[in-house]
Amino acid sequence: MKVSECGAQLVETIPIGLTYNTTIKSKSTFDALIGLVSSAKFTIDIASIYWTLQGTDVMPHPNNSSAKGTKLLNAFMDLSKYRSVKIRIASNNNIFGDNSTDLALLQGLAQIREINFNRLMGGVLHTNFVIVDNKHLYIGSANMDWRALTQIKELGIVLNDCHTLANDLSKIFQVFWYLGVENSTIPKQWPQELTTTFNASNPLLISINQTNYSVYLSSSPKPLCPFGRTNDIDAILFIIENADKFIHISVMNYYPLFLFQKNIHFWPLIDNALKSAVIDRKVNVRLLVSHTNYTRESLLIFLHSLAAFNDEKIFGATIEVKLFVVPTFTPFQASIPYARMYHDKYMVTDKTAYIGTSNWAADYFVNSAGNGFIITSKNNTSAEHNLRNDLQSIFQRDWDSSYAKYV
């Protein structure tokens, strides 16, 4: 199916103080989200892990770096007050026990459903997307959190005038909306209107920025995939297995484990796929992973096991692994909880770009709800506006930066 011309742009949050030797033109997450909100005429649907857009949601004495979050929250409130835009929000039921009052402020201005994913699947709603007027959308790593606008490295994509794709993402939102009803259960079969024809086997053919692409959206976990929807982990494995030359991965976490169960279990699906790509197909792999004060010690064990494949003489290709550290430049930055981290969740190969919302550990794909945006250029050109090339440039900039060090 061919649709009309869409526009798209990769969007990033570069934490305050972070500088690069390479300049890449990418829109800021804040500007992208404010732009989407400002464009709304009828409806906005938002799926987000949690809401902490006000500075005091996170810490008692925030500085002006939280101002962008407050401005975004006010923009949502003004939409309903002054422009009669219908807002629906699907989120978790206060899983972090924080001091946020954001959703309370939006009560009466927006329809809000808080989902008990722990009861339903033993996990959380771990996605971030916005749909405006069923034609514009954002999907990416950034939470509805002021830190995601100024203090955390984030990556996502904004698409404009993409009616067919926005409609497909709306079907995913409807799944979450359904589960937000009190005492809801996951149906054995989802309603026919939530099925999709766009998936890894039959992607949507679409023109974006005057370049032809095939695109589809993925979801996790499997029980939340109506008929036709590609499971998120299956999409990731499919991309890895179809790469011919290279696989570059940028993620906050990488654990081939179930992290949050009573007993830790091994889950080697991605690990095995990467090693197979190197050994069987001679595909070069690079993995860029965040390292913070909150990082588990076991991360380095698993990364070293991958880095052991960095020997072209033996394997004919290599796995290279780096840790990305977002420094703190001021005492205030050091005092912000769960900030100054590399929160990206994407992969780019010689064929395909993947932008997701899940951390790369088993729980996020098996027990929690996340989504992916998968795009492949049909002619695979080196055009300036080829989104895969743009994402590769961002990866290369971060990989070559002084903030990334080999394990």
Automatic annotation (TrEMBL):
Pfam families recorded: PLDc, PLDc_3
CDD domains for the chain: PLDc_vPLD3_4_5_like_1
Family: Belongs to the phospholipase D family.
InterPro entries xref list: Diverse_PLD-related, PLDc_3, PLipase_D/transphosphatidylase
Domain PLD phosphodiesterase, residue spans: 121-148, 338-364
Xref: SMART domains: PLDc
GO molecular function, a single term: catalytic activity
Name of the protein described by the UniProt record: PLD phosphodiesterase domain-containing protein
Gene3D superfamilies hit by this protein: Endonuclease Chain A
Lineage: superkingdom: Eukaryota
